Amino acid sequence: MHWSDDPSAHKRSPPQPFLPIASPSTSPIFSALLGPFSVIHALSRGLLLGVTALLYIVLVYGVCLIFLPISSLNRAMKGIFTAITCRLALYLMGYWWIETEVASPKRGAKGVSQITDLSPRRGDLIVSNWTSYVDVIYLAFRHNPTFLLPVFSSLPETPTKRFGRQTGTGSAAILTNLPQPPLLGYMRVTLPALLARTGSLPETFAVPPKGMYKTLRDARKSERGPVALFPEGTTGNGRAVLRFGEGVLAEADIGSEQEGTIWIKFIKHSAPTAFAASATCSTPTPLKHLLLSLLWTPTPFPARNVTIRSLHPSASPSSPSFLPSEILANAPGGLDSAGSDGKGAWREACATVLAETGKAFTRKDHLVRHSANHAIPSFYCPTCHRPFKRLDLLQRHEKRGICGDEGYLKRRRTSESDDLPQSQPRPTMHSIQLEDQSILPSSGVIPEFLIGDNNDWGFGLWPPDPWETLLQDTSVPLLSESAITVDGSWNGGGNIMTPRTFESTEREGEGVVNQGLIHKLQKAFPELEIDIPHLTVSLENYWTEISPTFPFIHKGTFDLLASPPELVIMMYIAGSTHTASRPDPSHRKIVQRIRGVLVEHCGLEMPISSLQAFCLCHVYDTWYSTRESQFVAQCMWPVMVTHSRKKGIGVVGRPEHEPQEQEAWASWAKDEERRRAAFCVLLIDTQLSAFWNQHPSRQLSIFAHNINLPCPRCQWEASTASDWFNVREPPSPSASVTRKPRSGYLPGLHPEFQVNVVSEGYSTAILSALAAEPQLPFRVDLENALGVEMILIGLMAIAWDCRTRGGMGIRFREGTAHWRPIVMNAVINVRAAWEIEVNHAQPCIEIRDMRDTFAISVISVLSDIPMLQVAAGATSICGAAIGPRQYADAKRRLRLWCKTEDAWTCLWQSARYLRQSLFADWGLYSPWAGFLTTLVCWAYAWASSRDDRLSPASDTPMQFASILLDTILGSPDRMETLNIGISDLIACTAERLSGGEEIERDNAGLMWRLIGSGARRRSSADRPTLV
Known about the structure:
By secondary structure, the protein is α/β, with parallel strands linked by helices. It folds into 4 domains: 9-363, no CATH class; 374-408 and 425-452, no CATH class; 515-798, no CATH class; 864-1027, no CATH class. Helix 19 crosses helix 21 (721-727) and helix 30 crosses helix 31. The protein is globular and about 100 Å long. Mean pLDDT is 74; it is low at 2-13, 106-114, 159-176, 409-510, 651-658, 731-759, 808-815 and 1013-1027.
């Protein structure tokens, strides 16, 4: 069951879902005086409802027989007659106006307005709770669906036992499940029959009855309109969602691969009053309830209220982003509630989503904590005197240390007064004694972190990762900062201790690798075998090969001897991948151990170095290790994002003094290092969606990340304070907008943070790039390569939001319906400006990385990366096994994609990239970019050809691959077929991938299988000429 948000629900344990809700007591005198009027009104309105029901039967089952030969017209007329009669019935019951709400993943009016025109249609499934016959009448009036009820067998299965802490209540007792009858299928029920069955138990049969649908998939395909299912099987009083029967809502019926949309609707009735009983009918007496409860009112036409909450389609079970495992991880019982075989995962996930769509709570302590939000503020910060309604919010506020010097100025509302006079001393968190200790998990011990309220309606539209459950409310946004203005004069200010403030040329060997550093590293990790020469070479390789791609460690102020061993070892392991010898396989276990140590010791006081080491763990496992480690890194990445929010690496304060030259360089380096660490977190997080089409951990719009763009490369790589002072750029006075204190807060920035200066460098740059302005306001050159890459990443984040959430974010409101060409034009515009600037530059790591990122981004926008891999024969994608059904579906989707203009554009862009990079030097992303672009060429050739077999490669594949690419690039029009030279192109790419890491060799094996590993290579003389 799932808890209701009734304010008094926490006083009952458990919430009896089948007991009728009693009305508040009133005076017997009033009852006696108003009794005759209630009898007259009930009988008169009951008679009118009877006439309405008779009119419905005559129109729908009589008049509509005339239109029976024309099925479409017959259904349309039935829908009109049903809507008229059902709305009239609702009006007679007192429902003059029915309130509807849409739970949208985008907050504000924009998120609701984008789906107001959508409604269930043929092939769609409506999943709703069932509390009264009013629910049925409303659904018939609004959608005229085909109603279905689950049908169970009368032969119960053998009860099963479960052991341990699997109840979700903290009990370790043995659970014995009650016998659950197996599901036979779904029975179609007419509107009058369903009204009569209100409150009755689900029907059971020894054999499947006639006319029953075995699966929901069959019902959705057969019916000519939407299908409505009440998975509870009977009605309740609305205080809880009843447990769904075994077998209901199976994955085969509602999985994301099924066609059509699943609409989650929660119908919630208003609380009863002294003169209006509850509309919920949990007993099998609908007629008695109608006359003696619903219509029994002293006034002729009382106004009743009912609210219909619908979940946004992008968060429903039919959405590709719907993951039952992430939802069940936070539900009582966790994944164990789905059973040992996992077949009930979708059923339990849908039950959780349905309950929380109606603002229900899955745990009683969540309800108690939510109720505290509506209480009077009782906790005050001893520093800034800010009031809090919950103790955990005050604890979080004190740990952050964000109290301002001016104190908290409370903004009064209308008719509001302080509960405590100003002269009265504010109580501190240590002096407050709770009146009711039962609301805490333990009355004796107050935990360090308490789960706070999300200021939402329970279920997150993007289900949080399992690790974020205890950390989400103690986390601050990832990228938010106030602008820091450092004056150019270095005369004022006192001396303070600044960490890692030395110039590498003046330390006289203190930053050089020595035996003491080796002893320190081996003491932390005894299994590490390392010597001074190897460590020195690996660290140099890190600065030359890894740091240009992920520049979040400042070399000029980096103290090698004082840095944590985890960070130094990760720099060594990452750099060792570029040495002459093959990487040590034992490094994989060391990386796993380092990640475990970082996760175990993460806290609010976690330094930036821990985040940097965690990023390097992810980089190593993703690009230099095995496919299994890549999957583990992607699964563990939400932990990194959560701790980066908790650390608040993008939130910095004002300098307390006027720094001198050396101190100013160190302070600037620390601030820039924090900013770049935040950017690299966002970079890697967005790469999950852009490179692998996986769900990132970012929960905010990309326009909510307000932060300055990274500084130029020359300023970042300055080795001394004097060099930095000569090349530094003073802050632009127009880059920030001054705001009054407490006038509001930035989107995505927590309201507890007081921000007076708003810097919009990153947000404004992305908006300008999205508008494809001829003169971009940011610098697109090699010196600002990281900034350009982050802007490109921002465009990819917008593409992901449009694909999965239906909008571009909170700032860009136009063109949401045509997001693909808008984002594509923005990417091409930025790429053109980049190539003009670096056209005559010497080849370097940044140029190769940007070339590869542009190529992968184009494929991410115009195609589907998992579809290409599955259609090519991949056996697993990001840890998920691929079966025959997924393979056939990918082949079908590939042929549909090939007919679009996006396919030809994607092919041309892929050929352009391959022509530039296939026979040139490769960078970090080049193996993956080359693999994907080659798959695009193969997919277009395969889908446009009638023959699935490819011709074998020739003895000179490079020559024919070049001819093929030139032919594609030189074609003035779309090429309908592409079946010559593909095998040579695949062979060239596979040859280059064969010499890489394990993941690259696996991709090479996949490409060899496409052209046949044992196929005879045709000689160049036998090859036909490309036209």
